[in-house]
């Protein structure tokens, strides 16, 4: 790789929003280190190289500190100009019916792994006095997440964490941007066991559009951005309705059509 070119890490980059974020970064002249916990990351790298970008692929489990350390080691000390922390995992159905190991994996991927990665890369960026961090939150973080409860809680954390960290770093040359998408056409809902829900069956946003909005906001150094007009409206409504009401609304979107399992 040409060390004079800008260098970006994109996590969760094998499919969906993460892949499109990586594609956008490649188009803008970044060399890439793309990461996911599945072998499809190699296919993603092959596609991205067709744009002429230098792309390294890494399969690592970013739900673990060991996986994050493996990612840091893969940079070989090269300064990171942009970290696009997009890796995330969802989980549908009623909380008490969910498997504990799947619950723990959502928390470890969305919260623990993301925070550890941002802590490691953020320290290096601050020491250099420059860098851009994009964290993929969600409009789900604005609503109590009936039948998607742990996921919404993790996204509420990320939304808050991103904006708090941005304020801490405001005079350091490091910017933090939070991308807050709504339901997007990716493998997310299938992996989260949510294909039998109204939101799982509904028309969703184009991941390329979502990535473009997020990437452009990161490059401008903006604090947070909600992708799509419909999602902006939902966020505004969620901010004024009582939490009990939004929890009921969320149930209407996320409860399996067969009703709650017992």
From TrEMBL:
<dbReference type="InterPro" id="IPR020904">
    <property type="entry name" value="Sc_DH/Rdtase_CS"/>
</dbReference>
<dbReference type="GO" id="GO:0016491">
    <property type="term" value="F:oxidoreductase activity"/>
</dbReference>
<dbReference type="Pfam" id="PF00106">
    <property type="entry name" value="adh_short"/>
</dbReference>
<protein>
    <submittedName>
        <fullName>SDR family NAD(P)-dependent oxidoreductase</fullName>
    </submittedName>
</protein>
<dbReference type="InterPro" id="IPR036291">
    <property type="entry name" value="NAD(P)-bd_dom_sf"/>
</dbReference>
<comment type="similarity">
    <text>Belongs to the short-chain dehydrogenases/reductases (SDR) family.</text>
</comment>
<dbReference type="GO" id="GO:0016020">
    <property type="term" value="C:membrane"/>
</dbReference>
<keyword id="KW-0560">Oxidoreductase</keyword>
<dbReference type="InterPro" id="IPR002347">
    <property type="entry name" value="SDR_fam"/>
</dbReference>
């Amino acid at each position: 790789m040409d060390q004079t070119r800008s260098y970006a890490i994109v996590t969760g980059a094998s499919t969906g929003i993460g892949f499109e974020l990586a594609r956008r970064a490649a188009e803008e002249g970044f060399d890439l280190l793309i990461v996911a916990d599945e072998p499809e990351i190699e296919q993603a790298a092959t596609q991205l190289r067709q744009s002429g970008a230098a792309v390294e692929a890494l399969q690592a489990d970013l739900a673990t500190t060991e996986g994050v350390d493996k990612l840091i080691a893969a940079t070989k000390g090269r300064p990171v100009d942009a970290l696009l922390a997009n890796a995330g995992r969802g989980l549908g159905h009623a909380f008490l019916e969910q498997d504990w190991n799947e619950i723990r994996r959502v928390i470890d991927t969305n919260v623990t792994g993301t925070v550890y990665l941002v802590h490691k890369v953020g320290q290096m960026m601050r020491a250099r006095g420059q860098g851009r961090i994009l964290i993929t939150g969600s409009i789900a973080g604005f609503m109590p997440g009936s039948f998607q409860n742990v996921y919404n809680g993790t996204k509420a954390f990320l939304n808050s964490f991103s904006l708090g960290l941005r304020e801490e770093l405001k005079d350091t040359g490091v910017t933090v941007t939070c991308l807050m998408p709504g339901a997007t056409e990716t493998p997310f809902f299938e992996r989260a066991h949510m294909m039998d829900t109204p939101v799982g069956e509904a028309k969703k946003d184009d991941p390329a559009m979502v990535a473009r909005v997020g990437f452009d906001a990161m490059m401008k150094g903006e604090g947070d951005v909600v992708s799509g007009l419909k999602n902006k409206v939902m966020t505004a409504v969620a901010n004024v309705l009582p939490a009990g009401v939004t929890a009921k609304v969320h149930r209407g979107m996320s409860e399996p059509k067969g009703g709650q399992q017992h």
